UniProtKB/TrEMBL annotation, chain A:
GO MF terms held by the record: NADH dehydrogenase (ubiquinone) activity; quinone binding
Keyword ATP-binding recorded: no
Organism: Bradyrhizobium lablabi
Recorded family membership: Belongs to the complex I subunit 6 family.
Organism superkingdom: Bacteria
Membrane topology of the entry: Multi-pass membrane protein
Cell compartment(s), UniProt: Cell membrane
Transmembrane helix is among the record's keywords: yes
Name of the protein in question: NADH-quinone oxidoreductase subunit J
Coiled coil: none
EC number: 7.1.1.-
Transmembrane feature ranges: 6-25, 32-51, 57-79, 91-115, 145-168
Automatic annotation (TrEMBL), chain B:
Function: NDH-1 shuttles electrons from NADH, via FMN and iron-sulfur (Fe-S) centers, to quinones in the respiratory chain. The immediate electron acceptor for the enzyme in this species is believed to be ubiquinone. Couples the redox reaction to proton translocation (for every two electrons transferred, four hydrogen ions are translocated across the cytoplasmic membrane), and thus conserves the redox energy in a proton gradient.
Swiss-Prot/TrEMBL keywords: Cell membrane, Membrane, NAD, Quinone, Translocase, Transmembrane, Transmembrane helix, Transport, Ubiquinone
Mode of membrane association: Multi-pass membrane protein
Location (main, coarse): membrane
Annotated protein name in UniProt: NADH-quinone oxidoreductase subunit N
PANTHER family cross-referenced by the UniProt entry: NADH DEHYDROGENASE
Record organism: Bradyrhizobium lablabi
Family label: Belongs to the complex I subunit 2 family.
Subunit structure: NDH-1 is composed of 14 different subunits. Subunits NuoA, H, J, K, L, M, N constitute the membrane sector of the complex.
Molecular function per GO: NADH dehydrogenase (quinone) (non-electrogenic) activity; NADH dehydrogenase (ubiquinone) activity; quinone binding
Catalytic reactions of this protein: a quinone + NADH + 5 H(+)(in) = a quinol + NAD(+) + 4 H(+)(out)
Amino acid sequence: MILPALFFYLFAGVCVASAVMVIVSRNPVHSVLFLILAFVNASGLFILMGAEFLGMMLIVVYVGAVAVLFLFVIMMLDVDFVELREGFIEYLPIGLVIGGIFVVELLLVVFSWVINPSTAKQITAAIPANVSNTEALGLVLYTKYIHYFQIAGMVLLVAMIGAIVLTLRHKAKVKRQDINVQNARTPELAMAVRKVASGQGLQDSDAAEWVK
Amino acid sequence: MSFSSAGYQLLPVLPELVLAVGAMALLMLGAYRGEGTTRLVTTLAVVLLVVTGALELMLPAGKLTTFGGSFVVDDFARFLKVLAIIGSAATLILSTEFLSDPSRRIFEYSILVLLSTLGMMVLISAADLIMLYLGLELMSLALYVVAASNRDNAKSTEAGLKYFVLGALSSGMLLYGASLIYGFTGTVDFAGIAAAVKSGSVGIVFGIVFLLAGLCFKVSAVPFHMWTPDVYEGAPTPVTAFFASAPKVAALAVFTRVTLTAFPGIVPQWQQILVFVAIASMALGSFAAIGQKNIKRLMAYSSIGHMGFALVGLASGTVEGAQGVLIYIAIYVAMTLGSFAVILTMKRNGQPVEQISDFAGLSRTNPMLAFFFAMLLFSLAGIPPLAGFFAKWYVFVAAIKAGLFTLAVIGVLTSVVGAFYYLTIVKLMYFDEPAGQIEPMRIELRTVLAVAGIFNIFFFVYPGPLVSVATAAAKSLF
């Protein structure tokens, strides 16, 4: 039993330490990298608890998409993080007060947590025995909850259409690739053989025709 | 894992399926045929909405449920779905001119309106919290995009961004409330919640407060109304007409269904929330509108006030109250669409004019338009014998029968204050010097205005059908 406990303290320790590093490191790129480290360790904690699906999702969604998006944003936008942190000392008291309230709330939750015994009876989809929780999710997601899944798909479709409507601009000067035109190109279309009289060269009008 | 396909019939969702598949087919049509198809896609979208509405009415009578009880089609859902479809279809018709501008020929506009309508239909039929949230997101996400659809205009972009940020915040609150309710009852199903909630524990009340806060945002009720004037003003006018009609129907529908079917055991707990929200909305809608100079901002405050009046009916928590809400929202949609047909007509030299002072002397330059608009404004103010009077009458009678005398009295007083700014516009139109000619009214705007205006003026002659349908719809909730 010592091994899981060791892994728990390893993951938890690294997770907390890297979370601290996210806020204190001066370089924003380092912050994002520490954030990824925190996510990976949190995912390890989930796997230790037996929730391997959540662990994998954390890596796929948060590390694979969200953190990479953060990296892109930080590298693309010229945000001066030193300037952003200027008010740190001024806002410290109010931050401490809010932090203190959170600590008190957390302690209250931890020490007075009681789960209503009737709640467990009302679970609509109990976890079936002898299957991993990924399989258990798969068993209901595409059968019992197919309608939620499909409507969520429609929501994502709207998000995609929205992104295109709001950002795609058809600029006149942009050259687009047209594969049919490329494939239909023949040597006759692409090349022109001209006899060049010596000492005269080609006329501009010939060149213009050729470019076309 | 036991799973049987019993309880998963597709017949009750047939209209939604047709709408979803149709919207995707139109998307393909638009994507492959390019931007020249905007007009065709819009026309087909209106046809698709009409077909969906007809299918909804042709479903077998009575209460149908599917997807394990999380989707319900009852008289209440039928009534409001048809109303939402009418709102969306009328919006598309009102948008023809907006979409014909070469710089804005975006066929996706109609697709987004269709998908938003799909979200509304899911929302109206939702019988559990997950379905509610998915429907709400599908509806809202499309609305955020259409608000910013005039993307070269700073105000339109601002409207879209503001609506998106505040909408995301309200979704967060709604989800927090939903998770609290799930935590305290152990189920997301409305019927299950109703069975589990017999007394208002602090946790449940907390959950209800957050859930209702999220819903109040969607119906733009005070104190979650801040986005409304800016978004109404910034969004393109046809989009504003859309915001003021169909989404309000869906949001009010889910408001009614959640409070009456999920929490019938603790009426006093949510009643006090609704009484506060209703009074605040009616008061703000009346007083804040007085100083407005822009007609779209005025309509925003007017819609805040009207949502307050509709919530008066809901606050009573009775069958009469629910019936009042249904009649109110139906008449409100007609009045709003008619008013926006007039606002869309107001153009000088090809530019839309939005100031209230631009309506001056309209009775001399354009007597028919002025007459219809005056009737709509009288109706919005609630002056008998126009439809708006009956709308208010039903909700106030329900409130009085439920013993909410203070609420009813405050409602009547604020509607008197509200009458002031509606009548100011009528005075401008009839007694002031003309501010210049406006462009001739387009045929589709004429049609919408005529239908809305005639419904509005002659409702008192034959109110039977609407009232009896609304009564049946309200009864199906209890």
